[in-house]
C-alpha cells in the first residue's frame, strides 16, 4: 500500500510505493518535479528539510539529499544558506520531446565491396550530388 505524506505545504503530496519496480529515489524526484510543474509548489516556496522529509516518508536522509541535489542540478530547486531548500523562481519548462525521425537500418550481410561502395555513393548523390553530406563531409568513401 502506498505511503502518502503531506509536507509543510498543504499542496505537497508525495506517494511512495515500496512495491513498485521504480526506485524510491526516482519516485521522490518525479513527485517533486510533478508538484513543481503542476504549480502545487510555487517559485520561492520552502521545501521541508531533508531530515523532515526523510522521516515523514520513512526514507534515509541521504536518499532525500540526493533527490534534492539532482533537482538542484536540473534547475528546479535552489539551496539558501540558513533558509533551507526552495523551489527555483524560474523553473525549467520542458518541451514535449520532438518526434524522432525514422531510422534507416541496413543489413549488409555478404555484400561485395563494390556493391557497398556503389550504395554509399548513391546515398551521397541523394544528399547533395557533390558527394558531400549535410555537414560538408565527403560521403561515399569506404
UniProtKB/TrEMBL annotation:
<dbReference type="InterPro" id="IPR000524">
    <property type="entry name" value="Tscrpt_reg_HTH_GntR"/>
</dbReference>
<protein>
    <recommendedName>
        <fullName>HTH gntR-type domain-containing protein</fullName>
    </recommendedName>
</protein>
<dbReference type="GO" id="GO:0003700">
    <property type="term" value="F:DNA-binding transcription factor activity"/>
</dbReference>
<keyword id="KW-0804">Transcription</keyword>
<dbReference type="GO" id="GO:0003677">
    <property type="term" value="F:DNA binding"/>
</dbReference>
<feature type="domain" description="HTH gntR-type">
    <location>
        <begin position="22"/>
        <end position="90"/>
    </location>
</feature>
<dbReference type="InterPro" id="IPR036390">
    <property type="entry name" value="WH_DNA-bd_sf"/>
</dbReference>
<keyword id="KW-0238">DNA-binding</keyword>
<dbReference type="InterPro" id="IPR051446">
    <property type="entry name" value="HTH_trans_reg/aminotransferase"/>
</dbReference>
<keyword id="KW-0663">Pyridoxal phosphate</keyword>
<dbReference type="InterPro" id="IPR036388">
    <property type="entry name" value="WH-like_DNA-bd_sf"/>
</dbReference>
<dbReference type="Pfam" id="PF00392">
    <property type="entry name" value="GntR"/>
</dbReference>
<keyword id="KW-0805">Transcription regulation</keyword>
